[in-house]
Amino acid sequence: MTDFEGLKALVTGGASGIGRATAELLAERGAQVAVLDLDPSCVEKPLLGFRADVTDDTSVRAAVAGAAEALGGLDVLVNNAGIGAQGTVEDNDDDEWRRVFDVNVLGMVRTARAALPHLRRSAHAAIVNTCSIAATAGLPQRALYSATKGAVHSLTLAMAADHIREGVRVNCVNPGTADTPWIGRLLDRASDPAAERAALEARQPAGRLVSAAEVAGAIAYLASPLSGATTGTSLAVDGGMQGL
Ligand code: NAD
């Protein structure tokens, strides 16, 4: 496949999980890839690592500029860095709401703002935001997290409308429960992680978790000219959870 040959991509949260699988897949298929993360020290060649915190506009601007310079431009931004939050509206105080929105929503706004001047110069510009089925599923014990992903969903639609005339497509993927270090950390908190994992898998229509590679495949599709006429869409990668 040559659809990624020559594409220059920046993946936020690319040091772990879905972001890492995406960065590796794009690079395997011929793209030049940079990763922006809090700690990109585990990232290996040919990926380029840039340290930044998406809550810090100065560090985001420096990392995006550094990536664009090192790659010779930017065609693709994968806005993927994100954190979780559990509980109902009574469980998280205002500071926690601000903290999670700062990462999950404003983090994507900051990277997009820094990347758009570079993307506008590309003939194949695409932004892919990692959203979640939580955006629309009404999951229990996920009020804050779901609200951030609902905002990412709306942001994707609004950005798609704003930037298509400049040649920049904007889409999102909606993973279900994906088998990444994030889920591993959640399971490790249970008294019996293996039993908890089995119960989690049993709740999935497909009988298993979604893999990071499967989410990466959907992101890669939306990032590539293969989806050249697609903008403002959300692609579920959830093993059938959306249909429940
Ligand atoms: P992960 O914890 O494995 O990876 C997240 C990465 O983001 C890490 O490398 C982390 O360092 C980075 N990151 C976090 N905060 C950051 C910040 N302030 N600045 C820069 N980088 C930061 O998690 P994952 O499961 O791969 O999740 C990736 C994305 O997928 C998130 O947006 C998450 O909401 C979304 N998602 C995950 C699942 C799931 O079940 N794993 C389901 C739906 C959506």
TrEMBL record:
Keywords: Oxidoreductase. The keyword Transferase does not apply. InterPro entries: NAD(P)-bd_dom_sf, Sc_DH/Rdtase_CS, SDR_DHRS6-like, SDR_fam. GO terms for molecular function: oxidoreductase activity. The keyword Iron does not apply. PANTHER family: DIHYDROANTICAPSIN 7-DEHYDROGENASE. Belongs to the short-chain dehydrogenases/reductases (SDR) family. This is Oxidoreductase. It comes from Streptomyces fuscichromogenes.
